[in-house]
Specification:
The chain is an alpha+beta fold and about 210 residues long. Helices cover about 30% and strands about 35% of the residues. The chain has a seven-stranded antiparallel beta sheet with strand order 1-7-6-5-4-3-2. The two termini are about 20 Å apart.
Length: about 210
């Protein structure tokens, strides 16, 4: 039985700040469950930044769950599309191991708040499912509860990163609508260069290995 979760978070920072901080949200003191983060693909097409990252997270399970899997970590693929022209950032994440035991798919859309252009709203949706006969309901319920806890940590951690990067978000007003779209795209291109070829190759190897196993 698929468990569905939906939530909305408002950050007191404008969309440009949130889009910049998104790439630097790990590590932070509130997200210790995230172990590693590697960029395996990144390119700019039609003014949009397409990225794929591989994350490793802790995978603690209760005693009853150890009969199904007891891996200490799990690999997560995060794909995203950042559109500075429309001011949207959409992310998709899913685990690429143990998917028959429990699969978690998450979608988050970051957009400018309609009520306050100086704030950003994150619309989050998640689907948790299990194919273990006789235990799918219990495993899905456990996955949903753990997802909610990790989601809370993620929001707190991301907010910490935003406050660290932009300690005075409202001190200086800037009309971002007046910025030329090519300037925004150039900034995104510069951010894309931060991932080295060595890291990309290494992460791609890990990704392919887990994909084959799955």
């Amino acid at each position: 039985m698929v468990k569905y979760f939906e939530d909305k978070t408002t950050f007191n920072f404008n969309w440009e700040q949130v889009a910049q901080a998104f790439w630097l949200k790990y590590p932070n003191p509130h997200s210790n469950h995230v172990l590693t983060e590697d960029t395996i693909q990144r390119e700019v097409r039609d003014g949009k930044l397409y990225s794929k990252r591989l994350l490793s997270k802790t995978n603690r399970v209760p005693k009853w769950g150890e009969r199904f899997y007891n891996a200490k970590s799990v690999k997560i693929v995060e794909e995203s599309v950042c559109d500075p022209r429309e001011r949207t950032l959409v992310t998709y994440t899913r685990n690429i191991a143990f998917t028959k035991i429990m699969s978690v798919t998450e979608k988050v859309v970051y957009v400018t708040s309609k009520e306050n252009p100086a704030k950003t709203v994150a619309h989050r949706s998640a689907w948790i499912d299990s194919q273990v006969f006789g235990f799918s309901r219990a495993i899905s319920a456990f996955g949903l509860d753990r997802f909610k806890k990790n989601c809370s940590k993620m929001v707190t951690g991301f907010d910490w990163v935003l406050h660290t990067m932009f300690p005075n978000p409202n001190s200086a007003h800037q009309d971002f609508h007046s910025l030329h779209s090519t300037t925004k795209t150039q900034k995104i291109k510069e951010a894309a260069r931060t991932a080295s070829d060595h890291v990309k190759a290494q992460a791609e190897h890990i990704y392919q290995a887990y994909s084959v196993k799955n």
